[in-house]
Amino acid sequence: MWAFITKIFTSKNRKACSEWAQVATCAIAILAVCLAWSQLGQMNEQQRWQNYSELNSRYATFYRELPKEILVDSHIDFLKSKPETKRAVRQYFDLYSEEYWLYQEGLIPEIMWTQRISNGVIVNLSEYPVLISGFRYWKEKGAFLHPADFRAEVEKQIAEVCRKRPRNQPC
Question: With contact defined as beta carbons under 8 Å apart, do 133 and 78 qualify?
């Protein structure tokens, strides 16, 4: 066996062995880059799901702490509502704008935005009309400027909710 190995590395075969070693090294380097790229992609996807999960947890806390005023009558006049109701509405849209920014930056999975988050906002706007009047109130105060097109996104969803409402229900 040793004779065979020494025969391969004789001066006559050294150049060929050196070339094969370079090819093998290059192939291993390419494989390592591919594996690193794959790992990075998996970590990226895991981070997107973690962002989504964290926001889900924050929404759960928000709903647990929703003021009774909203739960008892979600059609209340926002201007006459209690300070905690005004804060809750502001908090809801602050949380939503953060989620929207994460989505725009590709930090939340696309499928979660299109199939769950966006639809969830429409459900919330339908179930809690005070969110609509509250959004308009805070918007007039200069809130929700970031991300840049967040206001337009919410207005689009409000328009969809209003389109589905009976004509005798104001929006």
Answer: yes
pTM (two decimals): 0.73
Strands (E), 53-146: none
Give residue 125's region: left, alpha or beta (phi > 0; psi -120 to 50): alpha
Provide the b/e sequence for 83-96 (b: ≥16 CB within 10 Å).
eebbebbbebbeeb
**pLDDT per residue of the chain (171 residues) written in tens, 0 to 9:** 666 656 655 656 666 666 777 777 777 878 777 776 877 777 777 777 787 778 778 888 988 999 998 888 878 889 999 999 999 999 999 999 999 998 999 888 888 888 888 889 999 999 999 999 999 999 999 999 999 899 999 999 999 999 988 776 767
Can you read off the two tokens belonging to residue 6?
A: 């020494």
Strands (DSSP E) found in the chain: none
DSSP run (H or E) holding 152: helix 150-164
Q: How many residues does the chain have?
A: 171
* Nearest partner of 131 among 64, 81, 58, judged by Cα: 81
Handedness of CA 50, 146, 171, 68 (dihedral sign): positive
